[in-house]
Amino acid sequence: MTFENTMPYRDFEGSNIHFFYDYLRADGYSENSIDQVKDVIAESGSIAIQTGFLGVPSFIVLAPLDLTHSVEQLYIIHIIDEDLVVSSMSYLTNILWALFFVIFLLFALAMMILFRLLEQKVNDIENAKITHYYAKPYIVRINSRGAILSYNQSFRKFLGEYDIYDKITDFRVKKDIDSEPIQTLIHRQSAFTAFFELGLGKVAYVHFVPVRTTGGHLLIGDDITDIEGKFDEYKNLALYNPVTKLPNQNSLKQDLHKLFDDKEMLSKTNSLLAFDIVSFSKINLLLGEKSGDRFLSIVSELVKQSLEGYPSSLYNMNADTFFVLFRDIENYNWVTRWTSKILSILEKPITIDRNLINIEIKIGIFHMESDRYEIFNPDVCFDNVMLALNHA
Question: 138-231 in CATH: which number?
């Protein structure tokens, strides 16, 4: 059969070959190859033989008929031009190559798209890392024992040369009423605010949120100095003396109310003392306002040093009026001994701008003995110590 759908016939007359196997021998097949063909035919199998049929390279295909169609084993023999098979195979090969090329292009395109997506994801992750490392928020990594393992670059830059922290307990936490230790706050993953001294007079506040991680915690922080700093500034104006930085009258009254609310503490031996620098207005006039402020700061430091070892708190109400609240002392003789001590210290003159200033103070003392008063409250306590001071 040709491409024109025609079948050429040839005459076998004059041929001296009458048997199929002889034809194979004439075509150069060995006896072993012929025996293999015989075995396949004997088993009623199918076989294809490549040979030069009538001088044309061809494939002879032997296909047995079903025995239901004949009492004997008959074969249908197909003779196919080799060129037709090869051309069909070439066509199929070309299709396969084209299909392979298309699949390769699709695969390459898919890989490029996947690569772009992965690259974008990696870039996003790296950008996030850079953002967290170099910019806000601050990140501090600690282990389960509270040791600081690392900072991110943002927090390291924030601390600068004041990086003196090895453990989380080195952080100074802004404490509220009934505040818990920092380790407890971190373990409970409760937010807290720490403040850092970054130079003379410069205090920064960072609000941390603990996040549990493998082997410890991450502290995610945000600088709230603008908010918390102003709050503390206003609080200090209300509760602290701007010159001596000591708690003022408002702080004293708050502490007195806390003391009176604690009945057990109030039943113990407590005392409130007030002292005033005599003729401070003249000293201030002589030295000037700035030197007068330095004078008050020196006096407050001397008083604070003298109170070391005493369960007490020091307050500065007005420029030259100071209070000392003694809590839970053994007896009132402690107050008497401290009075003698501070008088002895202040006997020595103080040098301010090459001027020797002699200090004279008057002292008023009020012992908090609740059983001696029908009405006993913080206001009564404060009024009585001021009365004692005025009559000193």
Answer: 3.30.450.20
- Residue range 243-390 in CATH 3.30.70.270: yes
Helices and strands in the chain: count of H runs, count of E runs: 12, 15
Q: How far apart are the first and last CA of the chain?
A: 141
* Domains of the chain by residue range: 1-132, 138-231, 243-390
Reference 346, options 356, 334, 360; nearest CA is: 360
pTM listed for this prediction: 0.48
Question: Residues 262-316: pLDDT tens digits?
Answer: 999 999 999 999 999 988 888 888 888 888 889 899 999 999 999 999 999 999 9
Distance, in Å, from the CA atom of 175 to the CA atom of 95, rounded to the nearest integer, reads 80
Q: CA 289, 290, 291, 296 torsion: positive or negative?
A: positive
**19-34 pLDDT, tens digit each:** 777 777 877 888 888 8
Cβ-contact 238, 259 below 8 angstroms: no
CA dihedral 169, 175, 179, 181 (to 10 degrees): 0
